[in-house]
C-alpha cells in the first residue's frame, strides 16, 4: 500500500526549497525528494551568488519578470533574516568601441524590464568609480549585488520544515505513472524501491529536470525540454588584488553566458568566472589548462592581473534549454494539464537568474498549485 501525499517536490535546490517554503504555508502533505545527501549541492551552490538586476532578458519573459520581482524579495529576505549580502553594484564594461553598442542595448533592455536605476558611464566617469578598470565606457547597475547562497538555502530549508514540509534525502525518483487523478511516484534509496501517491508533482530537479519530465511520458524533444549542460569554471586571484576593485565587473555578454567577470565575495576573496562551454556530462573538475583563456579574457579590462596569480577554484553546470549557437530560451514553468498531465508542474531550464528569481518563482508555482487544488 503506497503512502498518499498532496504535493511531491522533486529536487532540493534553491527552487525546490523556496517552493516548499511557499507551498507548505497553504497545503499539507508536502514532501521534497532529493537524490543527494542534503540540499543545494549542485547548481544552487556552484554559482557566482550574484543578485541580478534584470537587464539581460527580453521584455515580458519569465526571466525578466521573475528576476526583477525576485531581486526585491531577496533583498527584503536578507534584511529581515540577517542573511549576509552586499549591494555592491555592478558595472558592465565595453573594452573597445565596438562593445559600446552592447551597453546601449543592455541599457534599453533593462529600462524596458523595469530596472530604472541604470547609469551609462563615460570612460572618465568609469575611472572615477573604478580607477583600476580599463574600458571605453560602462553601464552601472547599482541594485546588483552578492548574497550568501548557503545561508539563503538554510533559511528556505528551515522555514519549509517549520511550515510542515518533509524532506527525504538520498532518494531518487525513478518512475512516475499517472493513476486516475493522481500520480504514482516510484522512489529508490539504499533500502530499495518503494512508491508514494501524490496529487501534485513539482519537477524542480534542476540538471535532471528534463529526465523527470521524460519519466512522466513527455516527449522532451518535441516539447523543447531537452537540456544542454553548460559548464562554468572559476579561478581565484591572490589576496593582494582584493582592494583594487569594489564592484562586480562584467564584460559584454557572450552567447552562452554573461562573460568571465570579476567578483569580490563576502569573504573578500576575488574570483574570476564563470567561463561558459558545453559539455556532455556533469563534471565539477577545473582544468588548469584553461588559465590562459581566463587571463586573456579579463586582461582586456583588468590589465593589472598577472597570469601567475590565477589558481583553479571551482566549477558549476548550467541547465540550459538552448544549445550551442541557439538563441534565447526562457524558463519553462508550466502546469502540464493541456498536455494530459493535470497536477504536473515542470520547472525546466532554471539557470541564471534562477538564484535571484527563486522567491518569485516559488510564488508563481504556489499560485499554480492553489488554482489546481482549489
> In angstroms, what is the radius of gyration?
21 Å
Q: What percentage of the residues does DSSP assign to strands (E)? A: 25-35%
CATH architecture verdict of the largest domain: 3-Layer(bba) Sandwich
Going by CATH, the homologous superfamily of the largest domain would be FAD/NAD(P)-binding domain
Give the rounded overall mean pLDDT.
96
The termini sit apart by 27 Å
Order of helices and strands: EHEEHEEHEHEEHEEEEHHEEEEEHEEEH
| Shape category | elongated
- State the total count of DSSP E strands: 20
Low-confidence stretches: none
What is the top-level CATH class of the largest domain? Alpha Beta
At the fold tier of CATH, the topology name of the largest domain is FAD/NAD(P)-binding domain
Output the number of helix runs.
9
How helix-rich are the residues, as a percent range? 25-40%
Q: What structural category do the secondary elements indicate?
A: alpha+beta
Mind explaining what this structure looks like?
There is one protein chain. The protein is α+β, with helices and mostly antiparallel strands and 374 residues long. It has two domains: 3-46 and 151-226 and 327-373, 3-Layer(bba) Sandwich (FAD/NAD(P)-binding domain), CATH 3.50.50; 90-142 and 228-320, D-Amino Acid Oxidase, Chain A, domain 2 (2-Layer Sandwich), CATH 3.30.9. The chain has nine helices and 20 strands. Strands 1, 2, 9, 10, 11, 12, 19 and 20 form an eight-stranded mixed β-sheet that branches. Strands 13, 15, 16, 17 and 18 form a five-stranded antiparallel β-sheet that branches. A hairpin with a 2-residue loop joins strand 10 (172-179) and strand 11. The two termini are 27 Å apart. The model has no long low-confidence stretch (mean pLDDT 96).
Amino acid at each position: 500500500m503506497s503512502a498518499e501525499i498532496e504535493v511531491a517536490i522533486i529536487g532540493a535546490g534553491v527552487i525546490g526549497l523556496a517552493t516548499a517554503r511557499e507551498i507548505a504555508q497553504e497545503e499539507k502533505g508536502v514532501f521534497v525528494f532529493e537524490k543527494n545527501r542534503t540540499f543545494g549541492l549542485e547548481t544552487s551552490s556552484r554559482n557566482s551568488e550574484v543578485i541580478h538586476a534584470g537587464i539581460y532578458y527580453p521584455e515580458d519573459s519569465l526571466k525578466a519578470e521573475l528576476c526583477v520581482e525576485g531581486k526585491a524579495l531577496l533583498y527584503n529576505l536578507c534584511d529581515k533574516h540577517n542573511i549576509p549580502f552586499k549591494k555592491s553594484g555592478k558595472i558592465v564594461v565595453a573594452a573597445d568601441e565596438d562593445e559600446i553598442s552592447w551597453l546601449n542595448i543592455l541599457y534599453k533592455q533593462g529600462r524596458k524590464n523595469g530596472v530604472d536605476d541604470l547609469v551609462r558611464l563615460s570612460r572618465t566617469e568609469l575611472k572615477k568609480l573604478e580607477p583600476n578598470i580599463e574600458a571605453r565606457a560602462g553601464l552601472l547597475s547599482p541594485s546588483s549585488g552578492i548574497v550568501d547562497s548557503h545561508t539563503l538555502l538554510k533559511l528556505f530549508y528551515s522555514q519549509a520544515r517549520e511550515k510542515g514540509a518533509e524532506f527525504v534525502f538520498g532518494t531518487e525518483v525513478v518512475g512516475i505513472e499517472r493513476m486516475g487523478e493522481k500520480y504514482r511516484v516510484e522512489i529508490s534509496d539504499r533500502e530499495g524501491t518503494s512508491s508514494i501517491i501524490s496529487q501534485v508533482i513539482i519537477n524542480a530537479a534542476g540538471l535532471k529536470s528534463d529526465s523527470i519530465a521524460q519519466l512522466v511520458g513527455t516527449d522532451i524533444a518535441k516539447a523543447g525540454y531537452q537540456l544542454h549542460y553548460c559548464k562554468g569554471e572559476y579561478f581565484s586571484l591572490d589576496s593582494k588584488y582584493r582592494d583594487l576593485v569594489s564592484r562586480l565587473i562584467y564584460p559584454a555578454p557572450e552567447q552562452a553566458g554573461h562573460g568571465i567577470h570579476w567578483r569580490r565575495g563576502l569573504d573578500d576573496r576575488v574570483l574570476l568566472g564563470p567561463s561558459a562551454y558545453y559539455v556532455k556530462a556533469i563534471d565539477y573538475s577545473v582544468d588548469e589548462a584553461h588559465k590562459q583563456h581566463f587571463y586573456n579574457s579579463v586582461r582586456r579590462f583588468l590589465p593589472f592581473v598577472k597570469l601567475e596569480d590565477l589558481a583553479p577554484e571551482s566549477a558549476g553546470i548550467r541547465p540550459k534549454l538552448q544549445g550551442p549557437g541557439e538563441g534565447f530560451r526562457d524558463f519553462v514553468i508550466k502546469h502540464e494539464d493541456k498536455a494530459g498531465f493535470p497536477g504536473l508542474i515542470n520547472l525546466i531550464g532554471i539557470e541564471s537568474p534562477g538564484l535571484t528569481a527563486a522567491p518569485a518563482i516559488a510564488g508563481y508555482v504556489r499560485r499554480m498549485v492553489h488554482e489546481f487544488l482549489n
